[in-house]
């Protein structure tokens, strides 16, 4: 599915795009509030300044996606893979990031107000200057991770 087709269907009232394989490179500035993209493949897509609040992005693959300035407030990102994503200035307030994979993602200036992050996998994740980040929750795995307070979690030696 390409961006034109998705936006046309969304404008017509469709919200369920479960398991789509997106083959466009940009949805910049779109208003996709409440969309269901669970289990979709959205790698390397530019979502800059897009409204994805209240979206279901559970188990989505967004490897290398550009999420700068995106509104993800109240979004379900449970089990989402945001490895290598740019999330600069992104609003994650009250989002569900349980079991999310955030390896190598950049969260500079992101807003994490109201977040509890259980069972997240945080490998080479940069939370430097992340606003309102409460830290990873119970059962989270951290390795080579910079937390918002400047702490660096090295992780186990066997990963060196």
| Mean residue pLDDT | 85
Estimated share of beta-strand residues: 5-15%
The unreliable regions are: none
Full CATH superfamily name = E3 ubiquitin-protein ligase SopA
CA gyration radius, whole angstroms: 15 Å
Which CATH class? Answer: Mainly Beta
| Total separate domains | 1
> Judging by the overall fold, what is the CATH architecture?
3 Solenoid
Q: What is the straight-line distance between the termini? A: 40 Å
Return the CATH topology: Pectate Lyase C-like
Number of helices: 1
Shape: elongated
**SS class:** little secondary structure
H-E order? HEEEE
Instruction: Summarize the main sheet.
Output: 2 strands, parallel
């Amino acid at each position: 599915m390409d961006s034109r087709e998705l936006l046309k269907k969304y404008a017509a009232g469709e919200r369920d795009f479960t398991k789509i394989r997106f083959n466009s490179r940009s949805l910049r500035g779109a208003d996709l509030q409440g969309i269901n993209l669970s289990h979709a493949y959205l790698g390397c897509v530019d979502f800059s300044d897009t409204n994805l609040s209240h979206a279901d992005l559970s188990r989505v693959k967004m490897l290398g996606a550009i999420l700068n300035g995106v509104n993800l407030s109240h979004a379900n990102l449970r089990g989402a893979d945001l490895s290598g994503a740019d999330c600069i200035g992104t609003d994650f307030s009250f989002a569900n990031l349980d079991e999310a994979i955030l390896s190598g993602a950049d969260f500079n200036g992101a807003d994490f107000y109201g977040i509890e992050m259980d069972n997240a996998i945080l490998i080479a994740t940069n939370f430097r200057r992340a606003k309102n980040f409460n830290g990873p929750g119970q059962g989270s795995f951290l390795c080579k991770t910079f937390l918002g307070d400047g702490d660096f979690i090295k992780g186990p030696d066997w990963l060196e």
